[in-house]
Amino acid sequence: MQEIPVSSLDPRLQKQLENAQVALQRGNADYVIEVTAQVLKNAPGCVPVRRLQRVAQVKKAQSKSKLFTKAFGSMTQAGFMFGSKKDPAKGIENAEKMLAVDPNNVSALKLLAESAAALEMPETVCFAWESIREIQPADHDTLLSLGEAYLAANKHKEALRVADDLLRTKPQDGDALALMRRASVAQTMDKGKWEEEGTFREKLRDEEQAVSLEQAAKVVTSSDMTERLIAEAKQRVEAEPDNLNHYRSIVDGYRKLNRFADALEWLRKARKLPSGAGDSGLERLEGDLEVAIIEDEVHAAQTKLAESPENVAAQSALEAAKAKLTSFRLAQSKAYVERYPNDYAARYTLANLHFEAGEYQEAIANYQQAQKNPKVRISALAGMGKALKARKMFDLAIAQFQTAKSELASMDDTKKDVIYQLASCYEAMGKTQEAINEYKLIYSEDIGFRDVSDKINAFYASN
After folding, report:
1. 143, 162 contact by CB (below 8 A)
2. What is the mean pLDDT of residues 180-204?
3. pLDDT digits over 52-81, tens only?
4. How far is residue 123 from each of residues 108, 300, 351, measured CA to CA in Å?
5. Are 58 and 253 in contact (CB under 8 A)?
6. Mean pLDDT on 357-367
7. Residue 165: its pLDDT value, please?
8. How far apart are the C-alpha atoms of 95 and 109, rounded to whole Å?
9. Which partner for 397 in 88, 328, 333, 389 could form a disulfide, CB atoms 3.0-4.6 Å apart?
10. 295-311 burial string, b = 16+ CB within 10 Å, else e?
11. 282 to each of 248, 252, 271, 277, 294, how far by Cα in Å?
């Protein structure tokens, strides 16, 4: 099993889902459940479809006797739980059967999360824990599990928000503080897949279809409801202007609506309060919101360029937005390392940002420190080699690449890249034979890796 976007489904299934959206708006929950069940049978990893199904199930359950649903669910649950650990695919199937009876069956949702995790389906795990949170929003273990699920799915902003929610209730919660710290580091390290060249058009297309389904699934928690909650919180601010919690509610609401500029405006008002001035959580959140605003600028520029690929102004605007984002992340990362100088993973992040900014000397210094962390050591060695190469210190770069090469066991893409960089350093020094010897190592494993085939063919042709 694997998780797939809506755009990967058979066109006929996509059409059925469009009909299901219309049916949901008209109140025909049974039809939606039937269609989504058929789709999930063939594509259990399509999370937007699973979300749509849940909304229909919840809506249908509300019209039934809660007592009957609860009793029936408890009678069937035990039998479905057996054998799920040994067969996670069966576990998902059993969870679906229980949820069809009672969509608010927490045990079934936990079974779905456990089985999806075993099958390496992180988005499905997040969905399961999000659903549990809807049922028991204040449960500490649920929030912590949701935060961990977000981290595993590389949803670092969402993990930070969960940590914020936990710390709001219990500021000294050790588990929540650890989650906040790991999520902050991970978010800084994340360069954003949107920045990968040649992929954003496809991402936009997939997101449009996924969002279309998810918008249909907002019957339970609609944007209108969020707007009303924000308005109510603003009224409470007028009545109690020094109550920090009211400001938090407004900020959280605007974040849910992805209105980050409005959220930032109210967060800064909160930080002017005596109780908010020294709040480290609000300080971190302010930085996150600033990043989110700049990321929106990058996304907008990417969209505009996708519509007109030859537009020079659009290309310049995208480059400027990316540079702005890199600069801001660099400033944030520097501040973090100043506070936590022995966090070597954070130093690796800072080194990468220096490298992207063309600040190679600073990158080298931080890559050197980052090598003390075993988890990022190889990447730090390779990064330092690239920074030295950029400064044309080829002999020093070679030493880094050789060390990284010796510590990598399997010939995966990471090792191929290290060897390629090593070979190109030899080339730059005029050591053609040494370069070819390295290129041959890649050629023998992957003839299609970059331009290795061309280099090997040119070498033999010249001889």
Report:
1. yes
2. 59
3. 999 989 888 876 644 444 444 443 454 445
4. 17, 25, 30
5. no
6. 95
7. 85
8. 7
9. 389
10. bebbbebbeebbeeeee
11. 9, 12, 7, 8, 19
